[in-house]
């Protein structure tokens, strides 16, 4: 095999730029979710959660709603529940 053939094989095995961008967006979202979960108060968690942007495309083709959006909604609901519990316990 020539070096030209090897370069061609490498370029064909690389994912498209838009796939890498989408993957990086999903990874950043999950990192942000983990960081938000480490915050001390439910109010801070909720605020941080509002700034997270879930992925725009489904993880698998049969999904109607992207998994990252579902996770974002669940995380938001958990934060609201924690805030509600904190507010009720201080009354």
Question: What does the model show?
Answer:
The protein is mainly α and 91 residues long. The protein has one domain. It is 70% helix and 0% strand. It contains four helices and no strands. The protein has helices at 3-13, 17-37, 42-50, 67-89. Helix 2 runs antiparallel to helix 3 (42-50) and helix 3 (42-50) runs antiparallel to helix 4.
What's the layout of helices and strands?
Elements: H1 3-13, H2 17-37, H3 42-50, H4 67-89
Strand content: under 5%
Largest sheet: none
Helix content: over 70%
Number of alpha- plus pi-helical segments: 4
Poorly predicted sequence stretches spanning 5 or more consecutive residues = none
Structural class: mainly alpha
Q: How does the overall form come out from the CA principal axes?
A: elongated
């Amino acid at each position: 095999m020539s070096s030209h053939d090897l370069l061609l094989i490498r370029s064909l095995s690389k994912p498209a730029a838009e796939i890498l961008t989408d993957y990086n967006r999903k990874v950043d979202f999950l990192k942000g979710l983990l960081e938000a979960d480490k915050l001390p108060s439910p109010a801070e968690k909720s605020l941080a959660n509002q700034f997270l942007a879930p992925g725009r495309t489904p993880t698998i083709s049969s999904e109607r709603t992207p998994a990252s959006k579902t996770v974002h909604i669940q995380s938001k609901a958990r934060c609201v529940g924690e805030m509600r519990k904190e507010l009720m316990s201080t009354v």
